[in-house]
Amino acid sequence: MVPQGKLLSLLLPSLLLFVFPCTTTHAKSVIEPCSSSDSCTSLLSYILPYDSKLSEIAYRFQVNISDISAANSINPTTSFLSNQIFHAKSIVKIPIPCPCVDGIRRSISTTYTVRAADTAEFISEGYGGLVSPQQIMSANGVDARNPLMSGQTLLIPLPCTCFNNSDNGIATVYMSYVVQSDESLGSIAMEFDTTVMDLEAVNGLGQPVVDPGDVLAIPISVRAASGVIFSWLDKLFGNPGSKPQSLRLDSSHGTIANQLHSNKFTIRLFYAACSSANLNWHNETLIVPNGSYALTANDCIKCICEPGSLNLQCLPSGIESSCSHLQCKDSDLFIGDTYVENTSIGCNITACEYRGHYGRKIFRSLVNSSYVQCPGDRNCNATCPSGSPLSNNPDLVPSIALPPVSSPSPAPCPNMGIDGSNPRNRKSFNISSNEELLKKASWCTLLLLEVVYYFFLL
Fold this sequence. Notes:
The chain has helices spanning 4-19, 54-61, 65-71, 120-126, 133-139, 185-191, 196-203, 234-237, 434-440, 445-457, and strands at residues 39-47, 52-53, 85-86, 91-101, 104-105, 111-113, 153-155, 166-167, 170-178, 215-221, 228-232, 248-249, 259-261, 265-269, 273-275, 287-289, 292-296, 301-305, 313-316, 338-343, 346-358, 361-371. It is an alpha+beta fold. Pfam families: LysM.
């Protein structure tokens, strides 16, 4: 029989571990090895730790306000854009460069100046947990012998991945995402319209288990609609209160709008991003998440990935006065302009399209196409032209990025595509003025007929 004193000494470590649980566990994150000198654009899913102005967020990450506005589809014509305040728990997508540094992918473009009473934990919290206190200390040689000093400039090694901008052979942009306390790998996969298996493979997970604080690489892939969910309203079945039924279908017809509401059912389509991979651009590749836009060619060109289309629509940004080579040769058309000539059997369409850039030189070319069904036809079907709009959209022209300035007074959280009222809202690619964009979406009767066909089979 074990003496009581001996038994207590054996149990004491376990009791202490139970009463004082270990708090030194480290969050997991994926590290991408690399050997080239190339760089890609990656995204950060940044959950605001406290109320912040847009200018403060841009300054925190050393990113242009215009780039953040583009990534989040914020209306750039909003008054006092830089002074708009977003509440804690709002989600903001931050675009960052992702170079190869010392054999691994990591962003080194963000720095932080230490203030009095700062700790590594406090600094980590300010970046939404995207970088851990240990990573900050390790990257800057901070330890017990070399503590943080007021005025010291720290490198913030933010996570990023490129993976050749590909996921299973599909053009992809990757976003770093911090796992929250009530999330699982399955819920995250559902939220971003991917699979648990894909997240496991991308992040090198041996099993589908994640912990709060882990940083995952989320693939935002360029693909046609991966699924359609039909939610039938109660009155359709004549059974009020019954649970809506759903059906998931694969579709190769591309995407339509965020949500189509009718008196019978709701259709929700999932989509991801637009790519320039098949556009024959010179010296440039661009991937833009759906429902947002990106600036390129020294901010002279804005390329939109509009809901309802997987085609990039590029046009002059309007924020740079020194831009040249915007007009197509031997025509009156500028990049993004389209001319439609009706014929007896349809129409001929001439478009001035962006073709990439080299330095300050912007490449563009005229593209001629013929269609049996033309834009605006009621009987438009799968042969409808898609791509550049018939006229440029002035509502999405970015404003000049402003430097951080002080706000005269706190402003209410604006409705500009970032939802601060619901911290659990993880819809990453919502945009402001969805209703207006829905009106501009391309509709094809063939897809709608197919939807009705599947619907009435049930």
